[in-house]
Amino acid sequence: MYKYIIHTIPPSNNKFIGRKAEWEYQKIKKQWATLIECLCKPKPPAPLEGVTVTLRYFFTDSRRRDPDNYSGKIILDGLVKCGILKDDSFNCIDLEIEQGGVDKANPRVEIIIKEKGNYV
Residue 87, CB half-sphere, CA atoms under 13 Å: how many? Predict the structure, then answer.
């Protein structure tokens, strides 16, 4: 099992979908890839496949949020780019998205990667 904590939350998909924000999206995607490369240590010896990836979000408040707006695309792409995941397709991962709770002082996303069927 691998567990990584990023002490910030990526922007909602609503920030980009249906808007002409291609360059802004690419800039933020690159920033997140760098963030993941720097903070997600240790890396597995080889890129992982056949795993469950859980993204657990801790927001600063209890406002209503839709899980599909925090689908993890930017995070998953960063995990693939830095060699933690082999691919982010259905063939390689199962994806779970959770709201971990409210943490005003420490908003974050926890990334938990487990072998499928290996639950703690």
Answer: 5
Nearest-angstrom CA–CA distance, 76 and 33: 9
Helix axes 22-39, 73-81, angle to 10 degrees: 50
The pLDDT tens digits of the residues spanning 4-58 come to 999 999 988 777 766 676 788 889 999 999 999 999 999 999 999 999 999 999 9
**CA 2, CA 111: separation in Å to the nearest integer?**
8
Asked if residues 55 and 87 have their Cβ atoms less than 8 Å apart, the reply is no
Using alpha carbons only, how large is the chain's radius of gyration in Å? 14
pTM value is: 0.89
What structural domains does the chain harbor? 2-115 (3.30.1330.70)
